[in-house]
Specification:
The structure holds two protein chains of two kinds. By secondary structure, chain A is mainly alpha-helical. Chain A has two domains: 5-281 and 298-576, no CATH class; 585-760. Chain A contains 28 helices and three strands. A three-stranded mixed β-sheet of chain A has the order 1-2-3. In chain A, helix 11 (242-248) packs antiparallel against helix 12 (251-276), helix 18 packs parallel to helix 22 (493-511) and helix 19 packs across helix 22. The longest helix of chain A is centred in the C-terminal third of the chain and has 92 residues, at 582-673. Chain A is elongated. Chain B is built from 20 helices and two strands. The chains are: A mainly alpha, B mainly alpha. At the A-B interface, helix 7, helix 8, helix 26 and helix 28 of A face helix 6, helix 8, helix 12, helix 17 and helix 18 of B.
């Protein structure tokens, strides 16, 4: 009875507790604080501090090597956050961490020269180190929660690197990157919630046994993770931020973004699809491969793997196509990153698709991640080196640099050979492994489409050669334009040292491809559930054979034909039609739709409320007018009534006067008639006079009362009149405008709630 | 001896201080601020002592004047109350420190003394609301707080403030009316005002007089919904919170609306019989209303140009989280919702105070005019950034903690849709907060933002303390979450 290989490996592996992973994250964090403080005083001290920090980080990572050889190294910072921060470093993580810290060190060294004449250097270096910490955190994290934490921080921190120049382009690119990054992070978080909610653990290890018995839909979760990580990895169609953001950043930052940070996305997909969603390796007898195959046929991760293969193929082809059509050097490189990421994704896809047989895909993808990191970082630093003098990188403008910077040109050629997959340079082995992988997948599944995919793979490799030929020809050959001819192309030593180092590494890997395969790639594969056979096969592989070299010769021939043909038809000068871009086809309409919906909705709501106010305002005004009208007519009535009273009173007064006169007359008559009765008469007279005065007084009083009434009514009318006046003003001038609506709302809500509650309450 | 009376003193101290302050303002002007600070310091000490007692004994029951219930008024200090009281003390104290200098430029001198009176009265009523176990007493505190809030809004005496305060006054009177009617309906069928007795009597009343209970439930949801600005009853909030002086906004948005939510939680979980509630769709109604609040609050916030108004709309969205947790009702969700009371209090107070600092220093409240403010006012700018990131729910901030619990709680309740809602709202928050940060840090300072007035130290200190709290409680959520989890256990009856 054979025992499966993987449990063997796991059995020998011990869990080691070590603070080194935490230190590797803490050192750059501390360094960034120190750089900030030193940056307040001196640039040189700060630069020294930054370089030393990256060196220390590299040391901390490399010291983990003896530990991870024995088994995963773990460290837990308990008591913080929800679960603490958990680090777990197996060999796979270690490879990533070593790659990141090494290239970060080289790029930082270059950056000290590159940034010397830029603004806001301290900000750049502080965030450069903090991003390093978060990047390392992603690959060293031991559970998905810690991974998400660092992933999210990385999105935010790298934003500052992208928008460093604060130009309009940079701000736009940064915004696209930030929002897509945050949205991707949320997808990731949703996946994490679903996973945690159903299986209760977030550890990064094979968990499919738990997932299979839970109610979780693995496809949904994997899709969420794929989107979350895919945004970072520049996976089509989530790549749109990448060709915007990578070119606008300062070159050292572009190098790190393009060479390393996108790998964190690949790392995540690796971990989720290749590890978390695979079953714990049981003692399955893999002697009977078909039985195993049948048993594992239904694994969701395999089906997702098939999808990833195709995403990878599409990504690599379209990335290469866009690179062919671009003329800005950094844009070509950025699209090239998208394309190369397609290779890596394809490898991951094959690895997942073939399940335990997928070691070849794994090795190809991981090896290509390493190689791509070296040559892509190298390329960005090379064009950055040219940019330091020219401040311009369009290959139709900047030309003939071979005469000015021959050293850069030579290193560029080495990198070119590397990315082109020429034997003797580093890309050769990884592309060969990937090619083996896709052929294996095609043979394994006997599916026609995958054979077709293999053809696309070959064509894309030829296209890669084409666009790099175009880039090299544009940038280094031809005549130096006058405005760049007079400039001095002298650089400080770190620039030469760093570029030289990249060239040397590319050559070294290319000349001794099996060394790194055995040193790093195969030990990393042992952490995954690949079977013994596949690993053995990998161990014994020799890429120096006729068949593989022939393959690359075919690619070269194809590339030559393609290039000549494209050049002949002046294809390179073509601008891709705008409507072809994913952004135009999908994102812009989506954003526009969203904005329109949001704006329309809020505008509608706003105008609805406004209208309601206006209506209620108008109603209130109408009511007030009615009231005032009524008021006025009452007033009028009273006035009229008062007038009538006055007339009556006046008439009474006249009558009284007439009476008086009549009495006076009759009095005088009587006086004249009877002098004797004078006393009586005068008495009478006095009496009548008195009564007349009283009547007069009564008349006056009535008039007074009338006036008082009048003014009282006028006063009473005053407030309503004032209210009316106020209402007549501008709608914003009055205070109680909203109340009608609000009260209505409350009443409505209350009524609705009562109704719903009573209607739907399930009373017996 | 004094410690034994801590629950009563917590209400009495600020109340007495509030009545003394106008006297001070008349004769001993220089003592007004120290006296207010001293009163709140005593309250903070009192809440800490309550915390220790409750952690020790689990529950404190305080009878006023030694009259036992059902006749006397009873304060019950459980973990929920202690949690709320702590929130009140921390945020209240910091805001008071901030207000000392900020009010100098916002208020006339002769009303400044009154401001502290109103502030302390408000806090006293909030303390009372958090601790009281008597439903009518609760109503009294609600009324006090409504009047005091109104005063705090209208004290600035400009047109917008008075209009907003008037609106708030009328709406909150409507709300109070609903609550009072609900209390009357409950008293009618149970004969009790003490919540413990009420809960017991309701078991029977639910069978005999279900319509009374149903009507009272609807009235309470609407009444407290108005007060807590539950969507669509939030219409008063943006005006009120945007127009008030910044410290008032911080307290109103950070504390006041939350306490009504606490009252709602108490009534729903401790007074109404669970079996009765389960037969009504009230949880579902609150759930959907809070979802609408979360989404639409953010969407309305997006289109605002006035910084404080935007923050006010964001409060509408954030109170939605609290109610979401309440409505989902699973342990994690309720933990998240209640924890968000504290977390949002800290971060929204921080944001309002930082916004107040920008307004103080530059005189502008337009978001557009604040470009480069992060560079010219690094302390306030970074603090604002921390608060904003916490709103978005970036890990390491306390905003993430409550969202974490809420999202998990939605899954526990079997509603993954609401997990997605929580995450989408994070994105929406990002859409309106991140541009402000970008504008503040990565654009050249222009206009007033280029040369801001220097910020007085107490204001800076208050902002920095709150920013530190956001980070500390984000990094070490365990303590607070521990208290809340125990409180939730009591609410859900998992553990007594």
């Amino acid at each position: 009875m054979m025992i499966a290989a993987v449990p063997e490996v796991n059995a020998t592996a011990e869990i080691i507790t070590s603070i080194l992973p935490a230190a590797a994250v803490a050192i750059p964090l501390a360094g960034s604080v120190a750089a900030f403080l030193l940056g307040l005083r001196s640039d040189r001290l700060r630069n020294a501090c930054v370089v030393v920090t990256t060196l220390l980080t590299l040391a901390a990572v490399l010291f983990m090597y003896p530990l991870v050889l024995r088994g995963p190294a773990t460290w837990e910072i308990a008591g913080v956050l929800q679960f603490g921060i958990f680090f777990r470093v197996d060999f796979f993580s270690f490879v990533f961490a070593a790659l990141i810290s090494l290239i970060w060190f080289l790029a930082t060294l270059h950056a000290t020269a590159y940034m010397a004449h830029e603004d806001a250097q301290t900000r750049f270096f502080v965030f450069l180190l903090a991003t390093l910490a978060s990047c390392l955190g992603v690959v060293l994290a031991g559970d998905l929660f810690s991974l998400f934490l660092f992933f999210e921080l990385m999105t935010l921190l790298s934003y500052v690197l992208v928008i460093h120049d604060e130009t309009k382009d940079a701000m736009h690119a940064g915004a696209v990157m930030l929002y897509l990054g945050v949205a991707g992070g949320l997808c990731l978080l949703m996946g994490i919630f679903l996973l945690y909610g159903s299986i209760g653990t977030l550890e990064i290890k094979p968990l499919y046994d738990l997932i299979a018995v839970s109610s979780l839909n693995p496809y949904v979760v994997m899709l969420l993770f794929m989107v979350g990580f895919g945004v970072k990895a520049g996976m089509i169609p989530l790549h749109i931020w990448l060709p915007k953001a990578h070119p606008v950043a300062p070159s050292p930052a572009s190098a790190l973004l393009s060479a390393l940070m996108i790998n964190t996305g690949a790392y995540g997909i690796f971990r989720v699809v290749g590890m978390i969603f695979t079953p714990q390796a049981t003692g399955v007898d893999h002697g009977d491969a078909s039985a195993v195959h049948a048993a594992l046929e239904m694994l969701p991760s395999m089906q997702v793997g098939y999808v990833i293969i195709w995403i990878g193929i599409i990504t690599m082809f379209l990335g290469a196509l866009m690179a062919l059509l671009s003329t800005a050097a950094k844009k070509i490189l950025a699209y090239s990153s998208v394309s190369q990421m397609g290779y890596i994704l394809m490898g991951i896809g094959v690895a997942a698709y073939l399940g335990t047989e997928g070691a070849m895909g794994f090795a190809g993808a991981l090896y290509h991640i390493i190689n791509h990191a070296f040559f892509k970082a190298g390329f960005f630093l090379m064009v950055g080196t040219i940019n330091m003098v020219t401040h311009e990188l369009d290959i139709t403008v900047v030309r003939g640099m071979l005469q000015k910077v021959p050293f850069v040109a030579i290193v560029f050629l080495i990198g070119f050979a590397g990315i082109g997959g020429i034997p003797g340079f580093n890309g050769y082995i990884s592309k060969t492994l990937l090619h083996h992988a896709i052929v294996e997948a095609a043979e394994h599944s006997h599916s026609m489409p995958l054979f077709f995919a293999e053809k696309i793979f070959t064509v894309t490799s030829a296209m890669t050669l084409c666009y790099f030929t175009k880039l090299f020809r544009g940038l280094f050959l031809g005549k130096v334009p006058d405005r760049f001819a007079a400039k001095s192309y002298r650089y400080p030593w770190p620039v030469y040292a760093v570029l030289g180092a990249f060239g040397a590494v590319i050559l070294a890997i290319g000349l001794f491809p099996h060394f790194l395969l055995k040193l790093a790639v195969i030990p990393a594969a042992r952490g995954f559930a690949y079977n013994h056979h596949a690993l053995e096969h990998l161990q014994e592989i020799n890429v120096w054979n006729r068949h593989d070299v022939q393959g690359i010769l075919v690619v070269l021939a194809l590339a030559a034909v393609l290039y000549l043909a494209l050049d002949r038809f002046n294809f390179f000068a073509e601008k891709p039609p705008r409507w072809l871009s994913v952004e135009y086809l999908f994102y812009l309409p989506a954003v526009r739709f969203l904005l329109q919906t949001v704006c329309t909705a809020s505008a509608r709501f706003d105008s609805f409320i406004n209208n309601t106010y206006l209506q209620s305002c108008r109603l209130a005004r109408g009511a007030c007018r009615l009231v005032t009208l009524f008021d006025a007519s009452v007033n009028e009535a009273y006035k009229r009534g008062g007038g009538a009273v006055r007339t009556v009173a006046e008439r009474t007064g006249q009558f009284d006067g007439a009476l008086n006169q009549a009495y006076e007359r009759s009095g005088s008559l009587a006086r004249r008639l009877a002098d004797r009765t004078e006393q009586l008469d005068s008495a009478l007279n006095g009496a009548y006079e008195k009564s007349g005065a009283a009547a007069k007084e009564l008349v006056h009083k009535t008039a007074d009362l009338d006036e008082a009434l009048d003014s009282a009514y006028e006063q009473a009318g005053e407030p309503s009149r004032r209210l009316r006046d106020r209402l007549r003003g501008h709608p914003s001038d009055w205070n109680i405008k909203n109340l009608n609506f609000d009260a209505l709302l409350v009443a409505l809500m209350l009524g609705l709630l009562l109704f719903i509650i009573i209607y739907y309450a399930r009373l017996q | 001896m004094i410690v034994k009376h801590a629950p009563a003193l917590l209400v009495a101290i600020p109340l007495v201080a509030a009545y003394l302050l106008p006297l001070f303002a008349r004769r001993l002007k220089h003592l007004v601020v120290p006296a207010a600070l001293f009163a709140l310091l005593l309250c903070s000490a009192g809440s800490l002592s309550l915390l220790f007692q409750v952690m020790h004994t689990g529950l404190i029951i305080y009878h006023f004047g030694n009259w036992p219930p059902p006749v006397g008024i009873e304060f019950v200090v459980d973990r929920l109350a202690v949690f709320t009281v702590l929130t009140l003390s921390l945020v209240g104290f910091v805001v008071l420190v901030y207000s000392i200098d900020d009010l100098r430029h916002e208020l006339r001198e002769d009303v400044r003394g009154w401001y502290y009176t109103l502030f302390l009265t408000l806090l006293a009523s909030l303390y009372g609301m958090a601790m009281t176990n008597d439903i009518f007493n609760l109503f009294v505190f609600i009324e006090i707080s409504a009047i005091a809030s109104c005063g705090l809004i209208s004290i600035k005496e400009d047109r917008a403030c008075i209009e907003a305060a008037f609106k708030y006054l009328l709406l909150s009177a409507l709300g109070s009316g609903c609550i009072l009617l609900a209390i009357a309906l409950l008293y009618m069928v149970t004969g009790h005002l003490n919540m413990t007795y009420l809960a017991q009597a309701m078991l029977q009343a639910a069978e005999l007089y279900p319509y009374n209970l149903l009507a009272s439930l609807a009235l309470l949801v609407v009444g407290l919904g108005i007060k807590a600005a539950l969507f669509p009853l939030h219409v008063w909030l943006p005006d009120a919170h945007a127009a008030a002086p910044s410290p008032s906004s911080a307290v109103l948005s950070g504390l006041v609306i939350k306490i009504y939510a606490v009252a709602m939680i108490r009534l729903l979980f401790q007074v109404y019989p669970a079996a009765f509630l389960a037969r009504t769709p009230v949880a579902e109604i609150i759930l959907w209303l809070s979802t609408l609040a979360i989404l639409l609050g953010s969407i309305f916030a997006m289109v605002q140009e006035d910084l404080k108004r935007m923050l006010a709309y964001s409060s509408v969205a954030q109170i939605g989280y609290v109610f979401l947790g309440v409505a989902l009702g699973s342990e994690n969700a309720l933990t998240g919702g209640i924890l968000h009371i504290f977390n949002h209090a800290v971060m929204k107070a921080l944001l309002f105070l930082a916004a107040g600092a920008f307004i103080y220093a530059t005189g502008t409240r337009k978001i557009r005019d604040l470009s480069g403010i992060g560079q010219t006012m690094p302390a306030a700018g970074v603090a604002f950034a921390i608060g904003a990131l916490s709103m978005v729910g970036i890990p390491l901030t306390n905003g993430f903690v409550s969202k974490w619990y809420l999202a998990l709680g939605a899954l526990d309740a079997g509603r993954p849709f609401f997990t997605a809602i929580v995450l989408v709202s994070s994105l929406l928050n990002g859409i309106y907060f991140l541009p402000i940060l970008i504008n503040a840090f990565f654009r050249k300072p222009s206009g007033n933002a280029a040369a801001p007035r220097a910020l007085p130290t107490p204001m800076t200190a208050a902002i920095v303390v709150l920013a530190a709290a956001v980070i500390v409680f984000g990094f070490f959520p365990g303590r607070m979450a521990g208290i809340v989890v125990l409180a939730v256990h009591r609410l859900l009856g998992v553990w007594q």
